[in-house]
């Protein structure tokens, strides 16, 4: 959830130009974890549809199948692995990207599209 990175970063007290890599990592990680929380059921539905491609089941049927198997909690199968992956991946990507961007902007005095 790239849109949450900025607000979470501000909440953690990271100001513009700060080089606090750990707080940037945490902000990106939390944003990714929230994205995983929201996206996990959708990924599961998509995965079920792909796995049952030959059966020509619709997304509605995939939702019914998951619900009938385990109820609402069934939509979060595999969530523990997904949230860890999202936290580490988003945290790393956002923190490194922003740190490199600030470095290049200061070093080469670039702004806008050239940056």
Summarize the structure.
By secondary structure, the protein is mainly alpha-helical.
Could you explain the architecture of this structure?
The protein is mostly helical and 115 residues long. The chain has one domain (23-108). It contains four helices and no strands.
Topology:
Layout: H1 2-11, H2 21-51, H3 59-70, H4 79-108
Helix pairs in contact: 1-2, 2-3, 2-4
Shape: elongated
What average pLDDT do the residues reach?
90
**Approximate strand percentage:** under 5%
Q: Give the low-confidence spans.
A: none
Distance between the termini: 23 Å
How many beta strands in the DSSP annotation? 0
Taking the sheet with the most strands, its summary is: none
Work out the helix count.
4
- Element-level helix/strand string: HHHH
How many domains? The number is 1
Structural class: mainly alpha
Radius of gyration: 19 Å
Estimate the helix proportion, in percent. over 70%
Looking at this protein, list some descriptive labels.
115 residues; mainly alpha; 4 helices; 72% helix
């Amino acid at each position: 959830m790239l849109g949450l990175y900025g607000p979470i970063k501000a909440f953690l007290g990271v100001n513009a130009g700060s080089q606090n890599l750990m707080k940037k990592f945490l902000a990106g990680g939390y944003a990714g974890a929230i994205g995983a929380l929201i996206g996990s059921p959708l990924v599961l539905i998509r995965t079920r549809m792909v796995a049952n491609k030959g059966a020509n089941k619709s997304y509605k049927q995939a939702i019914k199948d998951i619900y009938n198997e385990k109820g609402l909690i069934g939509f979060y199968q595999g969530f523990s692995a997904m949230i860890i992956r999202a936290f580490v991946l988003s945290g790393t990507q956002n923190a490194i990207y922003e740190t490199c961007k600030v470095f290049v902007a200061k070093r080469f005095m670039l702004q806008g599209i050239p940056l």
